[in-house]
Amino acid sequence: MAANGVKRRKLEHTSSDDGDVVSFASFGATEEEVAEPAGNAGQDKTLEAVDDGDERLGDEEEEGFGDHEGDEQDLERFANHSEEDRGDVEIDVRDGGRFPKGKPAEPGAEQQRQDRAEGTRVRKTASELGTYLAGTSRSNIFKLQVDELLEQIRPRRGKREEAAEKALHSLKKILDQMPARGPLSVSDAEQQFLISGKVIIPFAEPTPPKDAKYKFAFASPSSVNVVGSYALKTSPRSREAVEIDMMVNMPAALFEEKDYLNYRYFYKRAYYLACLAESILDKSTYDTRFVDLHDDQMKPVVVVSPRTPLDTEDEIKPTPRWRINIIPSVGAEVFSKDKITPGRNCIRTTGDTKAGPTPFYNSSLRANMLTPSYLKVLHHAASTCDGFRDACLLGSTWLRQRGYSARISEGGFGNFEWSTLIALLLQGGGSNGKPMLSEGYSSYQLFKATLQVLALRNLSKSALVVGNADTKPTGDGTPMLWDALRAHNVLYKVTPWAYAQLRQDARSSLAMLGDQLFDGFDAAFILRTDGPLLQNDYLVNIPVTTMPAHRGSYHKLFDALKRGLGDRVSLVTMKTAPSMSWQPGSLRSKSTPDTSISIGLIVNPETVNRTVDHGPPAEDKAEAASFRTFWGEKAELRRFKDGSITESLVWSTSEAGQTVLEQVVRFLLSRHVGRDAEQNASFVGNGFVRLLPQGTSTTAYQPLMEAYKQLETDIRGLEGMPLSVRHITPADPQLRYCSIRPPSDTGGRKRPSPANVVIQFEASTRWPDEVIAIQRTKIAFLLNISELLQEAKAAVTARVGLENQEDESLNQAYLDIIYESGAAFRMRIHHDREQILLERQLKDKSLAPSSREGTARALAAYKRDYIKLPAHTQAVARLCSRYPALSGTVRLLKKWFASHLLASHIAEEVIELIAVRAFVQPWLWQTPSSVQTGFLRALHWLARWDWRAEPLIVDLSGTGELRAADVQSIKTRFEAWRKLDPSLNRIVTFAASSLDQDGTTWTDGRPQRVVAGHMTALAKAACAEVQEKQVALEPASLFASPLRDYDFVLHLDPALRGGKKRAGATNGTTFKNLELAAEDDESMIGFDAAQLLLGKLEFSYGSAVVFFAGGRERPVIAGLWSPQTAPRNWKMNLAYSTIPRKVRSKEEEESVTAEINKDAILAEIARLGGDLVESIERDMP
After folding, report:
1. Residue 908 backbone zone (phi > 0: left; psi -120 to 50: alpha; other: beta)
2. Residue scoring higher pLDDT (36 or 216)
3. Which residues have a Cβ under 8 Å from the Cβ of 935 and sit 6 or more positions away?
4. Mean pLDDT lowest for which of 125-139, 1020-1034, 1060-1074, 1135-1149?
5. Which terminus in the chain has less CB density within 10 A, N or C?
6. What residues pair up with 324 in beta bridges, in sequence order?
7. Which tens digit of pLDDT belongs to each residue from 852-905?
8. Ranges 98-107, 111-120, 144-153, 1133-1142, most confident
9. Nearest by Cα to 586 from 290, 303, 268, 285
């Protein structure tokens, strides 16, 4: 708990994007208005350490300590982008041993206890700081971040806690004064409560038989204690209600020796709980409800919270500021621990001699007996290990951000399981029964070591035993942390699917915290990672009403999916419906009809679409019979080309629009759950794929790739060329699987878009030594190649085209090569002498400023087009081959930018880097396995990218070739640019990679600051839509945005711009043969009327208007009037058309101002566009 008088402290945090969003919305305002950020968007956010008992804390609580969202906002205030701890202590948990290396030198436990007794923390502070500085943490900043987080989340006393403790005393007084009851039979006990009408006994299913011989009775509790994380201060402070566990120990005399069998203990416990609830209702004004403890229907508890009166029925009741869980328990000596071990059966049916063990039932009962015992275990750990409490706080935060809690519906692994795991490992679990963890470790070391235990030890196959015992897991997938002294599996509530997800999250966090290029603090403790669409590749939702009611049905469903899907998926998870609270006077709440079970699938992209599954060979009779029993009529015996005869399954490539994965899942649901479940199941995950032309497969690119190989062979085989060819390299999105639309169908008549390639010849002294002369020589080379190629290949057409005629220092010509198959390439020549000559010109101090600017522009274009673009193309193509989902992710992300009219401002290469980052640096998650997760995670990062303060850095090698020194060099360049251009007039976004450490190749001059702000706002809106809609999300909704933010919009004719034709459109021709001839005109290869119009408009009106275009994805060009066009004093030679206006000042003096002539400019735009512009819409509503 923080000490009194703690000063308020601040951590600098990057300002939000509000200023840019406002700038976009008010782009038509004056220049001064745009330059001034709105509100306090530019101010730093602060972290405030609240004093104990601070009255201001009560004010905060009044305002809104009631939503889980507030916790995320609280945590987000700690985001302080910096390097994190990476030099972690390593542990080999597979051997069950202690840390073999990295153990810091710390004092003994006895000396630590003496220090605490003396009340000094000097040696502890020095030791902990030494731990971070000596190699177990690479950065002091990370330690400061962790310490600041711990200070903010440590529990401390405030008004909520005072009110809750006052209620605790009141409740204890009520419980101590309760009279004895009974003994009563089942019928008499129910009748007694039926007469009062206040409480219905919350019996679990199945309810006790009416003729049961055992009796129900009540006696005053033998003890009442506060237990759990509130007493130990191991749970983070939350904006939600303060939750306190009150243990009510039931007298042992109420139970008989055999009450551990057949729910008898739980029935008597339910009766005892009903008595408690009735007394509290009679003698207090608190709100009292029943709820199943951690979703375990056998153990309901009474939840007491402050009653909040409502003035009207429609008023929403606020979340209570505190909540007390009254938990009946029994002493550890009441039932023999040997009779309720996980391997015994305690639910016996008459005549059933083959009943298996009941591990969950047994462990649930045993857990109810051990509450005081584990309170002592945790208290001992907190007393002997200084870092224990803070390690629990870090672990609780990590678990909450990933959606885990002690509730079975949320995994069954919560604060208690985390803290008990650490406490037990401080006692044993290592080789020869030695402690696996040391009491001298800091909080972060304990946190990291616990993650390593979860990640590297599979406790569902090999139990982690603390103490002397020979125990094996139950075999149903439940992990086992066996406490031999207390004969209890601490992890009995953890479901197999949640445990698999927990291990994957632990592995991801370990890799993330060990990534030298990634700041893992935010990802580990700040950001939520449990969004179903971000976490899973596919989701299957099944209504609860279609599932069998018993608890084992979920395990049966999980086992069927895991076996049936096999290696198609790497992970199967489930989110079951949580139990709801209910009034004591009503029956137990049941799931509503719209409640569903959510099944998450993370797929293996290499095998998920496999159409033939091979089963066991026919010779293996037992396995073959099991295979046929599981698959039923779907299994068939087949002979394959290699001569083998095996059981097999054959799936359709596309059955009624269903993917292979969906076919398999639906068949498994129909066979192993029920036809009703299969018919009502909804499958989420293919919606985004349908938005891409020809799907996400790279198969559509193969004809062009083969044609490219043929082109290389043809060029190298030409005879009579002056120089031999050194390299032919691809430099086009089509040749790296990244164009929104795959190459056109080679058999069709549509004009293909040529793919850019670069050719480089062997060095020769015959090249001229002047830049302009080199450009002329290139033209001669291209003409020669064109002639030789058409002579050698009759089916090939080659034409030389000219470009950049306004600047002779730039490349002047290209060669279009068209194959009969329809593949088209645009070839340019790379001569490395150009760079030397251009750099020499720049060093010439006598060069005129205008010439220097042109030379610098030519040098930048040379490096971009001939060095970095080919290297970028080859690297991205390799990554697309390595990650099957990357190609579709890039294409979908480009479609998103184009649909929001940002395609003309954000370079394709930058978009590709954003998408690649989600794969090569996937934290918070694993590498995406589907297009959906790749796309949504890229948007998630884009929404959080603070491009003012952070560069985009991507390792395009995918193998860690980008080193820490390279990253530091890139950051240094970024900081230098921010100092040179603090107003972000030239470099707004900074995008670097392992192949391009300059960072400005693709972003020099674009996008403008207002466009970058608009990009961030759109990404945030998309993420908010995903968060709100979740599985009900309509993918197409993320690609639509209104046009009302723009000042005017040009609607283009799709027929004339090469898009989908309207009915009756004839491309300006009257006859079909003329239309076909126009399509076959090879001189029109690569012609894009809309792009040419956009270029013309930007050249003519770029100083007055900012244009936005979406290419083929959205046939409009939108515009915003620049703030620089605001009325100003009249002068000649303005860069845009103006109208003189007389203005009378306050002093009655007349002056003439120049106002932009919007009508004339729009009329001129319409004239330039001609038939391409269908209409112009202005004054958007």
Report:
1. alpha
2. 216
3. 688, 888, 889, 892, 893, 896, 915
4. 125-139
5. C
6. 244, 304
7. 899 999 999 999 999 999 999 999 999 999 999 999 999 999 999 999 999 999
8. 144-153
9. 290
Q: Which amino acid is at 1146?
A: K
| pLDDT classification of 687: cutoffs 50, 70, 90 | confident
Does 216 score more than 90 pLDDT?
yes
Go through the chain and tell me how many residues it has. 1181
Give the CB-side neighbour count of residue 646, counting CA atoms within 13 A.
15
Q: Checking DSSP bridges between strand 755-761 and strand 824-830, what pairing results, if any? A: parallel
- Reading the block at residue 406, the tokens are 């002690």
pLDDT of residue 149: 92
Strand order, beta sheet including 755-761: 725-730, 755-761, 824-830, 813-818, 797-802
- Tokens describing residue 1159: 């009508």
Tokens found for residue 969: 């060099």
Domains and CATH numbers, the chain: 159-526 (1.10.1410.10), 531-611+651-686 (3.30.70.3020), 694-882 (3.30.460), 883-889+917-1041 (no CATH), 1043-1178 (3.30.70.3030)
What is the C-alpha separation between 673 and 993, in angstroms, rounded?
50
Which amino acid is it at 232?
Answer: L
What is the value of pTM for the model shown? 0.84
Question: Cβ contacts of residue 697 below 8 Å, gap of 6+?
Answer: none
Give the model's pLDDT for residue 977.
95
Rounded (10°) angle between helices 443-456 and 415-425: 100
Average pLDDT for residues 1086-1114, to the nearest whole number?
89
CB 212 within 8 A of CB 291: no
Task: Report residue 1163 as tokens.
Answer: 């009329």
Q: Which of 529, 534, 502, 500 is nearest to 930 (CA)?
A: 534
Q: Are 1125 and 1093 in contact (CB under 8 A)?
A: no
What's the pLDDT band for 60 if we cut at 50, 70, 90? Answer: very low
* CA of residue 790 relative to chain centroid, distance: 53
Read off the tokens for 640: 């394959």
Residues 6+ positions from 1040 with CB-CB distance below 8 Å: 899
User: If you average pLDDT over residues 971-986, what whole number do you get?
Assistant: 94
Cis before 1007 (ω within 30): yes
Which is it for the CA torsion 1022, 1025, 1031, 1035, positive or negative? Answer: negative
Structure tokens at 1066: 């004839």
| Among 891, 760, 898, residue whose Cα is nearest residue 833 | 760
pLDDT band with cut points at 50, 70 and 90 for residue 744: low
Cis status of the peptide bond prior to 183, with omega within 30 of 0:
yes
CB-based contact 524:512 (threshold 8 Å): yes
CB 800 within 8 Å of CB 815: yes
